[in-house]
Amino acid sequence: MPSLEQYIILAIILFLIGLFGFLTRRNLIIILISIEIMLNGLIVLFAAISHFTKDISGYIIVFFIIAMAAAEAAIGLSLVILIYKRLRTVYSDEITTFKG
Amino acid sequence: MNWDLIIFYYLAIVMIFSSVFAIFSRHPVYTVLLVLVMIIHQAFLLLTLGAEFLTVVQIIVYAGAILVLFLFVVYLINLRKETKRNVFIKRASLIAIIFLVLGAFLMINFFSLISLKPSFKAYLPFTVEEKSNVWWIANYLFKSYLLQFEIIGVILLVAIFGAVFLIRKVKTFE
Amino acid sequence: MVEKQFELITNFDIYVFLIPFLPLIASVITLIFGKKYFRDKAHLLPILALFFSFLLSVKVLIEVINGKIYQFDIYTWMFAYDLKVGLGFLVDPLSAAMITMVTCVSFLIHVYSVGYMGGDPGYYRFFAYISLFTFFMLMLALSNNLAELYLGWEGVGLCSYLLIGYWYQKKSASDAGKKAFIVCRIGDFGFALGIFTAFYFLGTLYYYEIFPKLPEISNKYIEILGYQVHVPFLIAFLLFCGAMGKSAQFPLHVWLPDAMEGPTPVSALIHAATMVTAGVFMVCRLNPLFELSSAMMFIVAIIGAFTCFMSATIAPTQFDIKRVIAYSTLSQLGYMFMACGVGAFIAGMFHLLTHAYFKALLFLGAGSVIHLLHHAPDPNDIRIMGGLKKYMPITYWTLLIASLSISGIPGFAGFFSKDEILAQAFFSKYPWGKFIWFIGWIVAAMTAFYTFRIIFRAFYGEFKGWEYVHGKPHESPRVMTVPLIFLAIGSIVAGWIGIPQALGGRNYIEEFLVPVLGHPRVVHEVSHSTEYLLMLLSVLAGLFGIFLAWLVYIKKPELETLLSKNVKPLYTFLFRKWYFDELYHYTIVRPTLWISRKIVVAITDNTIIEGIVNGSARLVNITGTGLRILHTGIINHYSTFILIGIIVYLLVYLYLK
User: Fold this and answer.
1) CB-based contact C391:C472 (threshold 8 Å)
2) pTM higher than 0.95 for the full model?
3) Which C-chain residues 209-248 have CB contacts (< 8 A) with chain B?
4) In CATH, what class is A4-87?
């Protein structure tokens, strides 16, 4: 049986990969997918802690995270489509309407 | 080396590599498919943690709903022309350095945090042997966490309305 | 006379509460929704509210007549150690009489305004303001403590400002609004100080707690700048400063004539019938305090007499019909203060009530004429009027009733109240009573003269304003004439509640107000024969004034320029309103402007404040230019900054605890 530390390291690595994608990718869809990867890291973390501490709360939180991820994906993707409709692009460095 | 560890390492390595390739891939469709691979492996990882209900939810919701949604959007927005261009934004390396600093920082602190072995004593009888995992989750979800459960339902409803509202047809487009 | 026993009601009474709050609700709703939804229907809600308010105040008045007094707090407004101020109501004979008058006049003027203001772009605004004004006036009248009185006091001042400057596109109107507000502020500052002083010495602001405590301070003196000052005098004087401002008494009277820039219904409601009487009301309300200091009574009487006389001399020289009536308002307010100053509070209050009717009527009648001539460059000028008697019969007759009433012709309201004042001044126990009577008697003749000057110039002779009227001059619409008729009835009947005993009547108003204002302060039993003589004298004075006006303006028009040709300096002196505006301009306005230009602008503004302002702007500019580099507009960069923030926060949290 792998230890809790190994699960946590895996969770952190997943989280960081997602974070890296979130920060550096240009494509807004991939930025959203990166967020999903980060959330998956969290799922692993909570499930592992829940399993090793014999506490059901972690699983419940995982359940909620999945639900939140669904909601977030729905809204995020509709925003992406909206941006694409208006600006004809999905690349974050081409959307510079905030530029000061 | 027992089977538990072998399975764990297999799942972890596949997950890490598929997500890395997903981040670095040039075409969004590959990204989505690689993430699908990662999510299915993660579902099995949850199975090793004794959470068979979550495994099913993970596959149904994530793989079945969310990623399909992503795929649809990728198809909807025709990106074939732009795939030749840069994948990352400019000065991504600078951002990567910052991100690595955080990564190392988080790692170190998490290790120190775990080594504290916080006292998780006050917990409930969580014995998978007597009742199934589904029974326990249902029991807690519909008793102790009922309000949160309802709120999640409302949030999902709002998300549906929001999505419909955002992409409705408005005459002022362009 | 047996003292009436009153039943004190201290419970919350919804009817009393609704009297002021119905107009408030109507006003707020009209103000918020008026522009978009009501537009030319904006009058409905305020008129309805006022009507119910009027009915309720009649109900309350009847209950007060039947021996009830309401005194209750709705809630505690301010509470600090031993200062406790509630938002409460006190309904006693004084305030019941006042609110009935206010709601009645206000209702009629609301109705009149429907005709007068019709088609104005700010229609809803007008009704919202006058409704709000009525609310504040009712709060003032119903207040049960000084702080709440002050709330109403400032509120009516605000509404007065808003309504004088109602046609704010006109420079003169907005200037007049500012002038009214600033001049009133001077008085109100004194009023606020008076409230503070009263609290300092008495420890409470509630009327029913103040009055029992008054004997404690009756012999108290306080040293100010080496002078021993009588404490009741100090309090009363400071409070009276506010009354001088609000009731436009000398030396703070200058704002009232200019206030005529507002719409005529406003002049009628605020600057004649209700708001300007607030000072008199306040003096009556606090009559035990004022009576503690005979020096104060003397000041009240003298200021009243001086204002009365001064404005009566100015009025005949003015050509603006509303200004003439405004000066007559000043003069009549002077009468009321004279009455208060000789201890005849009931007579003052009685005159306040009757005056409200006939003065509102005078203004509205004048407004009816102005409405006819509103295409003229200056519709208020009586020189372009004339001969309107046959074109506007209702306006003519109602205005005539008001003029007879103000001139003190027997049978009309003004006669009874003015005669009451003069008689009680003559018999007063205060030594200056005779002098006050003499001034009042002279002014009575002058009042009749200048009031009938308007009548004769506007309604007799030839009409001179043909070029400003389309077709023939015509009577105002019915929505305007009906309130005139009602007010005319009021101008006659209002006096009958106080027919003096010498004429065989029963002085109801005196019986009604005695519990609050006390018996008139007279030296001995009034002999009826002297009273008849006084009445005769004042009637003769009034008739003489009318006769003089008839002589000058109808019979021998060449007499009109007699004064202005032969005694030019005196005429100019009167025409320029005793040079008060010029005096204030050179002694107060100019030095203030000089100081602000030379010192404030040059040093404070240009160097210090502008240095700080420009310096901070430059600093922001430099910083902004620097930070602009970071502001790329790319969300990845922004999320990186967020990440950096989190890292910094975590570092601080983990290592710098």
Assistant:
1) yes
2) no
3) none
4) mainly alpha
**Residue of C623, C639, C646, C647 best to disrupt the A interface, most CBs of A under 10 A:** C639
Residue B51 placed within a domain: yes
Phi-psi region of C2 (alpha: psi -120 to 50; beta: other; left: phi over 0): beta
CA distance B103 to chain A (A): 6
- Put simply, whether B122 touches C (Cβ < 8 Å) is no
Distance from the B156 Cα atom to the nearest Cα atom in chain A, whole angstroms: 5
Query: What pLDDT does residue C294 have?
Result: 84
- The DSSP bridge partners found for residue C222 are C229
Stretch C449-469: mean pLDDT, rounded? 81
Is residue B126 one of the residues assigned to a domain?
A: no
Cβ contact, residue pair C634, A22, below 8 Å: no
Return the residue of C nearest to B98 by Cα: C644
- Which residues of C are less than 8 Å from B99 in CB distance? 643
CB-CB neighbors (< 8 A) of B95 in chain C: 636, 640
What the block records as the tokens of C217 is 């301070």
How many other C-beta atoms lie within 10 A of the C-beta of residue B64? Answer: 13
Contact C252, C187 (CB under 8 A): yes
Number of domains in chain B: 1
Residue B66 lies in a domain: yes
The pLDDT value given to residue C246: 86
Strands across the sheet containing C83-91: C7-9, C68-80, C83-91
pLDDT digits (tens, 9 = 90+) for C574-597: 777 777 778 888 888 888 888 888
Name every residue whose Cβ is closer than 8 Å to that of residue C633 and which is 6 or more positions away in sequence.
A95, A96, A97, A98, A99, A100
Chain A residue numbers touching B120 (CB-CB < 8 A): 53-55
- The whole-chain average pLDDT of chain C stands at 84
Interface predicted TM-score (ipTM) of this complex, two decimals? 0.90
CB contact under 8 A, A24 and C628: no
C484 close to C394: Cβ distance less than 8 angstroms: yes
Whether B36 is covered by a domain: the verdict is: yes
What CA–CA distance (Å, rounded) separates C202 from C196?
A: 10
pLDDT of residue B38: 93
Q: What is the CATH number of the domain that holds B71?
A: 1.20.120.1200
Q: Cα(A24)–Cα(A39) distance, rounded to whole angstroms? A: 17
Quick: pLDDT tens for B59-76.
999 888 899 989 988 888
The mean-pLDDT minimum among B142-156, C193-207, C495-509, C635-649 falls in: C495-509
Percent of chain C surpassing pLDDT 70: 96
Domain with B56 in it: 1-84
CA–CA dist A57, B126 (Å, integer): 11
CB contact under 8 A, C651 and B99: no
Strand partners, C89: C72, C143
> What are phi and psi for residue B49, nearest 5 degrees?
-90, 5
Name the neighbours of C, counting chains with at least 3 Cβ pairs within 8 A.
A, B
CA distances from C575 to C172, C334, C483, C580 (A): 19, 20, 33, 11
User: How high does pLDDT run on average in chain A?
Assistant: 87
Q: In chain A, where are the structural domains located?
A: 4-87
Question: What is the gyration radius of the CA atoms in chain A, in angstroms?
Answer: 17
Using the Cβ of B36 and the Cβ atoms of chain A, whether some distance falls under 8 Å is answered with no
The beta-carbon neighbor of C640 closest among B95, B105, B109 is B95
* Local structure of residue C630 (DSSP, 8 states): T
Interface of B with A in 67-126 (CB under 8 A): 69-70, 73-74, 76-77, 79, 82, 86-90, 92, 95-96, 98-99, 102-103, 106-107, 110-111, 114, 120, 123-124, 126
pLDDT tens across C255-281, in order?
888 888 888 888 888 877 788 888 888
Q: Residue C90: is it exposed, middle or buried by C-beta count within 10 angstroms (0-12/13-18/19+)?
A: buried
